[in-house]
Design goal:
The protein is built from eleven helices and nine strands. The model has no long low-confidence stretch (mean pLDDT 94). The strands form two sheets. Strands 5-4-3-6-7-9-8 form a seven-stranded mixed sheet, sandwiched between helices. The protein has a two-stranded antiparallel ribbon with strand order 1-2. It is of the alpha/beta class and 295 residues long. The protein binds glutamine.
Length: 295
């Protein structure tokens, strides 16, 4: 941070620093420049963002400025704000995130809504979420359904550690259990115990991976995004294998890419295990969630 007309004796105020950063971010093509500046300054000062407003004219101490500058540098290198602060809001809850987990996306709230729509409020229901990542989906469902029992798996132990912290933080650890598994591997059950299997699997076409924003392609876990040559490797596997774990009339809910509906319908049909599929839309009006019932 350099400014030509400022004398060294006159320190940066919070407002001055925010304005400078917003225009710096803007000139580097960083999304939401002012909001990002505020989130990072609040993080550097260990304040809530709202607290900045009453302190706009306060000077920044040299150590505070140094901390803030190092966060600005990370953002300029395209590290996502959520990894810098270690937090992301989803379902109006604050989730801990690390580079071991995909940052929860707003469109994934549609997956939670779809699950809540099929899960009874009063009956004990059993849910499995393979590929849980940060645990955001399981935790959001558990918050809304006090009678549910959720089994959340991921092949990444680092991700499971983050997910467990989120379940503890949001006080649902008594109904969410975590275990390490690669999709359905290492899980053998004869009694088909799940009322629902819910998942946001990787579904990006491999050829599209490099064209993603640098925030995604350089920082987020590839294994949470790369769905293989046609993007549907994990989706196909989940559709084919889920019936072995679903109770009669159990429901499979999967987040999918906006243009994958027709291909996913074909996979469902060819499995022969389900009633007619529905593709539900997200808040942006894009097809986003596959819903199918075992028959
Ligand atoms: N919607 C995510 C993205 O755009 C992809 C999530 C996924 O592959 N599960 O980056």
């Amino acid at each position: 941070m350099t400014r030509s007309r400022q004398t060294p004796e006159k320190p940066w105020t919070m407002l001055g620093a925010l304005k400078w950063t917003a225009s710096y971010f803007h000139s580097h093509g960083i999304d939401s420049p002012r909001a990002s500046a505020e989130i990072l300054l609040a993080h550097a000062l260990e304040l809530q963002r709202i607290d900045l407003y009453v302190r706009y004219d306060q000077p920044l101490q040299p150590a505070e400025l140094d901390r803030y500058k190092s966060l600005i540098r990370r953002r300029i290198e395209r590290e996502p704000v959520a990894y810098i602060t270690g937090e992301k809001e989803f379902w109006s809850l604050s989730f801990r995130v690390s580079p071991a987990v995909l940052i929860p996306r707003p469109e994934t709230e549609s997956l939670v809504e779809a699950a809540l729509a099929v899960l009874s409020e009063n009956e004990p229901v059993r849910i499995w979420e393979p590929g849980t990542g940060s645990g955001a989906v399981s935790v959001a469902i558990a918050r809304e359904r006090s009678h549910c029992r959720i089994f959340s798996s991921d092949r990444s132990l680092e991700a499971l550690a983050v997910a467990r912290q989120n379940a503890v933080r949001h006080e649902v650890i008594d109904r969410v259990g975590f275990f390490a598994a690669d999709w359905f591997e290492a899980f053998c059950c004869r009694e088909r115990p799940f009322d629902a299997v819910v998942s946001n699997p990787p579904y990006i076409r491999r050829a599209d991976m490099e064209g993603l924003a640098p925030e995604i392609s350089r920082f987020e876990p590839r294994q949470a995004l790369d769905g293989g040559p046609d993007g549907l490797d994990a989706v196909r596997r989940l559709i084919r294998e889920a019936p072995r774990y679903l109770s009669p009339e159990g429901v499979l809910l999967l987040e999918i890419g906006y243009d994958q509906g027709p291909a996913v319908r074909d996979i469902v049909k060819s499995s022969g295990e389900y009633a007619a599929p529905e593709i539900l839309k997200d808040y942006g009006g894009n097809p986003r969630v596959l819903k199918v019932r075992r028959r």
